[in-house]
Amino acid sequence: KRMSHVLGKEWGQHLEGRQLRRSCDELLSKLDSRAYFRNWVSEWERELSSDTNSKLNTFPIIIVREGKFLAAKANFDEKHEYLSREIRYLKWLGYERDIPRTIALVS
Predict the structure, then answer these.
(1) Torsions phi, psi of 60, nearest 5?
(2) Rounded CA separation 103/52 (Å)
(3) What is the pTM of this model?
(4) Alpha-carbon distances, residue 63 vs 31, 66, 70, 75 (angstroms)
């Protein structure tokens, strides 16, 4: 619709117009974010299912002496930290309803 406002109503009938339409359609198919999101979900579901089958995820707190003071340090899994960051970004992008509850709870 917008292309016809700029190039005229018959722009798709011309040789250059057909080439432009093919290029635009190809670009739009590559910019489909839903396909990337579905791939992301399946990748994380696979990752999390392999984690639950392999070991119990416990992250102990370690007490360390730093000079005169004691400090508590927690061992967090980097994957879960990365997952929570990705979920936060996806929520900002408007994917909040599409994120599976199982993945959101793990993060």
Answers:
(1) -70, 155
(2) 13
(3) 0.55
(4) 48, 10, 7, 11
pLDDT above 80 (res 91): yes
107 and 84 in contact (C-beta within 8 Å)?
yes
H/E run at residue 64: strand 61-66
Counted residue by residue, the chain has a size of 107
Burial of 86 (0-12, 13-18, 19+ CB in 10 A): middle
Q: How far apart are CA 48 and CA 101, in angstroms?
A: 13
Distances (CA, A) of 55 to 39, 51, 92, 99: 25, 6, 32, 25
**Average pLDDT for the chain:** 81
Q: Which residues contact 48 (CB under 8 A, 6 or more apart)?
A: 102, 103, 106
